[in-house]
Write a structure and sequence with these properties.
Residues 68-430 form the Amidohydrolase-related domain. This is Amidohydrolase. Helix content is 33%, strand content 20%. By secondary structure, it is of the alpha/beta class. Strand 12 (178-180), helix 5 and strand 13 (203-205) form a beta-alpha-beta unit.
Amino acid sequence: MRTFTPATLPVLSPTTPVVWRGRVWNGQDEAPVADGAVLTRGGRIEAVGPAAHLSALEDAVTVQTTGTILPGLIDLHVHARPAYLPWFVAAGVTTVRDACNSLETVDALLAHPGPGPRVLPSGPMLDGPDAFFRHFGSGAVHEPGDGQERSAAALIVRTPAQAERAVAFLADQGVTHLKLYEALAPEVYSAAMRAAARLHLPVMTDLGMLTTRGRAAQVDARQALALGVRSVEHASGFALAAERAGFDPTLDLPTEVLDELAALTVTAGAALVPTLSVFAPLTTNTRPDGRDLPLAGQGGPLRESLEAQWQVVHAGTRPIRSLAQADARLAAQLAVRIAQLGGRVGAGTDTPAGAFTLPGGGLHAELERLVQAGLTPAQALRAATSTAADLLGRADLGRVQPGAVADLLVVAGDPTTDIRATRTIQLVVQGGHLLTPGTLHAALEA
């Protein structure tokens, strides 16, 4: 039996049995096992338990760590591009749920040859005639049947029949879920939901916030939950629901209103993906300090392009700082109440659409913001592991347990007591493949 440390570990074949020793957090419990071990073989986790029970495997390589072994992280709300993909895995994010992309871009993401996360695509969102994406040029939006659906970031549906055809089209393209956006008419939204249910496609929805066009949306969170959405992104649609109930969402909502909205979410079996990192930079004229995030110092043309985009977004939203503060407050309050009720809160970043949300690294900032809002470190970690996997319908992800995919993240310290410990990454394993620092650095440079 050969024993290595993360610093001395050679490149290993995924078929090599490896015993990873150290503090083990399984993605579900409140606390880790202090002296645990994980056996991986053939891209799967074969066994988990006390180190003494797994250390005598003669055919295995042993890796002795001084940190915590936890599941690879899941970002539930991203807008990926092929060039961003290595950034995610370098930050320990091994799976992402894409929240809107043209089918052409989805093809490029799935065909990406280098290191990258597992991508679960939605394809283009469904939106109404007044789609915000029209601001991105005529090529960004198309209607089902116009022959250019694969290049569309948003498919415009005006009638229930169009919605049903659009859902069927996207299902045929192999998307794993749908995204419904803020300008859909109620009857069209309902038709899309019914079609998605027949095809067993879960639905994520963005109904608009105070900082966007939430008050102009036609469907609010209460209605979307009643129709069976799987997750509500950005805590969108809740401000509109409160306003329709006679309350001013720019002010602190009464406790009973917040409790009712949280209870509705839990009863519906839906998840809240609050994306606190979207609002936080917009609440102040000072950019957030992310200097210790994974890849915070990564330069190059891609980073320069993202920085230019973020600076424009941040400067352009200066007049709506107070609305961002209201959105941030509502999202945080709902997240805490839903978690307290035993409901599902998922971790998503909206990277890189949100200002200063690094691909990959931004998820670590989101975890800290969830804890600052009032979740425990374990609840925040579950939001990016087992809870996120449940939301994806993937019981084989987000957990360190026998039969699960061998996606592992090894970090210094114990993130169940200090959530910032996730930022000091020692090793990343995806599907049993060890992603060495050299491999990741080469992919980032390319």
